[in-house]
Design brief:
Blueprint lengths: L3 H23 L3 E2 L8 E2 L5 E2 L24 E2 L7 E6 L18 H9 L1 E7 L4 H10 L32 H7 L3 E8 L24 E6 L10 E3 L2 E3 L10 H19 L5 E6 L11 H10 L6 H15 L24 H34 L6 E7 L16 H4 L8 H4 L17 H7 L13 H4 E7 L9 E3 L3 E2 L3 H9 L6 E2 L2 E2 L25 E6 L2 E6 L2 E5 L22 E5 L15 H17 L10 H4 L50 E8 L2 E8 L2 E7 L1
Parallel strand pairs: 2-4, 3-16, 5-11, 5-12, 6-14, 6-15, 7-8, 7-11
Antiparallel strand pairs: 1-2, 6-13, 8-9, 9-10, 12-13, 16-17, 18-19, 19-20, 20-21, 22-23, 23-24
Helix pairs in contact: 5-8, 6-8, 7-11
Length: 705
């Protein structure tokens, strides 16, 4: 129970926060002559969009005797910063050089040198959920994304629908006068709304982002992605051998920023920059593959890589000096010395491609940052660079794979001698590749486990750099306060002087659930206790609760590549509970549950209350089974599908479902006298799906799993 003093302090903080918000709203800033075409104003932000102002001119029967009046243009508060929000994919704490990794990430290093490093920021353990939390400032279940959109189920916390009472940061900033954009991965469109018929209200342009250039879904072939500009499918790679989305996206972002700057140089921008890297498939260019190969970073194997990263982290001071490293998990992954020569050769190839992808991605991020500086806008640009939306992915399994799609079809142990057939083309358009989980474990150093494992810091422990020249004086400093991605939205709003709205489109808004970390920008607050006191975690029935330094965690009972077995029938109670004091145990390596049984009970009860509050129930430990669970589909009830013209890019959620069904495919075609070859109908591609085509004049049906 809280003491009277704690309650009083909490009340004082709440009152102070409300007073600050009211103060922001009261300080309306205007420029120009009221009613003139050039007049501007800020808004209270209480209601979005802002209500139309009352006409202030004069109307008579005669226009010559009337006085025109224009509503002022809405602008953000004076000195509101540009915002560049960067989040990479499937990258653990020990990946970037900024935090002790061996892969060079000079763009992140640059921001750390000129800003701050954060070693205690957390994700949700999975893609869509983290990204929903990031753009709404609410927990992932609150935002409808308890899992990825392709696994959505018909419960509020899991339906993959960001509700109307949870406006995104894009919408809030747009209505306050920002130019808003989203580049790269969008894994927050419901799978049943991802086709060209929409609806588009849950696409970026429907959620407040005025410009979108990227792909919809969890991953993308970087050589030939399923790419959109706003809602129109585009094919910039056609006729351009060697084109790669990592560069193509940076090019488009730079072009967009240049157009905005030249058209309206005083208008602040908000850009969400979310590359597909380093989610599989790992698709770097040959230039970067050669650079990394020549560095020989991984020749000694994953055990020594882990030790090296750990030493680097202590040397850089990004982890406490007394941090401990758990023994290598030999029950899950074998030691490097136990690998065969052929395995070592393949595994080194796999990780070099991954590392090249990471380095290449960071380089292109650096180009975008440099473009901001070249425009003269860096000094008033808040840049938040989050390394990873979860820990490093182990979905390639212990052996890795040349085809990640095979994992989702239950093939997660392709023999090494079979994989060697793709050795020379690994990372090219001929593979949809992923690396061995041994490397993933090392890249999550000093933590354990991986993406998907929400009860372990290897799944949710990220790192971040923040730069805001002129506002962050303690350049190069380290911040160790506990944070979560839901804290990003309130941080941006506070930095911009813009309050969270009470209503949007007439809908009362749910409270922001994150806590601003602007206070950490001030050097005098470097050691201040975290203001984010409590945070739950849950993914696929594995769960944890952080509270004031303590972390209650379920023992990991499923490796990420074990997605097809029977699910835990009672994920709330059928668990082995572990307890960690993270204030003394940064790496979550010392389980003290036996010493503090009352703390275990207290935190479990607190988790249940948090779970009720944020729509976590009903908990579901199934993984693969949810991919084929029933969900809305525009094909529902239809028994016939007719296509009369060429059509590409139709997502599975809006195309005929032939899984576990009887079906007939009929094609009316004209075959020239000399014969013909070619595709008639296909779903998927070379890495998975089915195809109906002519080969040497004969019809062929082929299904690939």
């Amino acid at each position: 129970m809280k003491s009277a003093r704690q309650i009083l302090i909490g009340g004082m903080l709440a009152v102070a926060a409300m007073a600050a918000a009211a103060s922001v709203r009261a300080q309306i800033q205007t420029t120009g002559t009221p009613g003139s075409p050039g007049a501007t104003t800020t808004i209270s932000g209480k209601q979005l969009p802002a209500p139309d102002p009352k006409f202030g001119g004069v109307i008579t029967n005669d226009a010559l005797k009337s006085k025109p009046w224009w509503a002022p243009r809405i602008v953000p508060p004076k000195d509101a910063p540009n915002v560049l929000l960067i989040i990479t994919d499937d990258s653990g704490f020990g990946v970037p050089s900024t935090f002790g990794g061996v892969i060079p990430t000079p763009a992140m290093d640059r921001l750390a040198k000129n800003g701050l490093r954060y070693n205690n920021i957390h994700s949700t353990a999975l893609c869509s959920p983290t990204r929903a939390a990031l753009i709404t400032g609410r927990n992932h279940h609150s935002a409808g994304f308890g899992v990825i959109s392709e696994q959505s189920t018909g419960f509020p916390g899991y339906n993959s629908i960001i509700a109307e009472d949870k406006a995104t940061i894009g919408r809030i900033l747009k209505d306050n006068g920002y130019a808003t954009s989203w580049f790269g991965k969008d894994h927050n469109v419901p799978a049943f709304a991802a086709s060209q018929v929409g609806p588009f209200d849950k696409w970026p342009i429907g959620m407040g982002f005025e410009y979108f250039y990227g792909f919809v879904g969890g991953d993308a072939n970087q050589w030939q992605p399923n790419l959109f500009r706003n809602t129109t499918q585009i094919y910039p790679f056609e006729g351009k051998p060697g084109w790669n989305l990592v560069t193509g996206m940076a090019d488009d972002a730079i072009d967009y920023l240049s157009r905005i700057n030249q058209t309206a140089p005083t208008k602040p921008f908000f850009m969400k920059y979310a590359p597909g890297a380093t989610h599989a498939p790992h698709h770097p260019t040959k230039e970067w593959v050669d650079k990394i190969h020549d560095m020989h970073l991984f020749d000694e194997g994953w055990n020594k890589l882990r030790d090296r990263i750990f030493e680097n982290q202590k040397r850089l001071g990004v982890i406490p000096a007394d941090t401990q490293l758990e023994p290598w998990p030999t029950k899950v992954l074998k030691n490097w010395d136990d690998c065969t020569p052929e395995e070592k050769k393949l595994f080194i190839k796999q990780v070099e491609i991954f590392a090249a992808y990471e380095a290449y991605n960071d380089y292109e991020i650096g180009r975008v940052i440099q473009a901001v500086e070249d425009m003269g806008k860096l000094d008033n640009t808040l840049i938040i660079y989050i390394n990873g939306d979860n820990g490093t992915s182990a979905e390639g399994g212990p052996l890795g794979t040349p085809n990640e799609v095979a994992f989702f079809n239950g093939i997660n142990a392709m023999p090494v001698n079979v994989q060697m057939k793709w050795y020379d083309v690994w990372g090219t358009e001929q593979t949809y590749n992923h690396m061995s989980a041994g490397w993933s474990w090392a890249f999550d150093t000093p933590f354990t486990w991986f993406k998907q494992n929400a009860s372990k810091l290897g799944g949710v422990g990220q790192c971040m750099t923040v730069s805001w020249p002129g506002h962050i004086k303690d350049v190069g400093g380290l911040r160790q306060q506990f944070m979560h991605v839901i804290d990003v939205v309130p941080t941006i709003l506070e930095a911009a002087g813009i309050p969270a709205p009470d209503t949007v489109d007439g809908i009362k808004q749910a409270p922001i659930e994150g806590t601003s970390f602007v206070y950490t920008f001030d050097a005098k607050n470097a050691k201040e206790p975290t203001r984010h006191k409590t945070q739950y975690f849950e993914m696929f029935g594995q769960w944890a609760l952080y509270h004031e330094g303590w972390m209650l965690s379920t023992q990991v009972n499923r490796a990420p590549w074990e997605a097809f077995g029977p699910a835990n029938p009672d994920p709330l109670n059928n668990q082995v509970l572990e307890l960690y004091n993270l204030d003394k145990d940064f790496s979550q390596s010392q389980n003290v549950a036996a010493k503090f049984p009352d703390k275990v009970k207290e935190l479990k009860a607190m988790f249940i209350e948090e779970a009720k509050k944020y729509q976590v129930f009903p908990m579901d430990a199934s993984v693969a089974a949810r991919i084929v669970a029933p969900r809305p589909n525009i094909t529902a009830g239809r028994t016939e599908f007719v296509y009369t013209k060429p059509m590409v890019g139709l997502p599975q959620g809006d195309s005929p479902v032939i899984l576990n069904s009887s079906y007939t495919i009929t094609a009316d075609i004209e075959v020239p006298a000399g014969g013909a070859e070619g595709m008639i109908l296909t779903s998927g591609g070379r890495f998975g799906g089915y195809g109906f085509y002519l080969l040497k004049g004969k019809p062929v049906f082929l299904s690939i799993t």
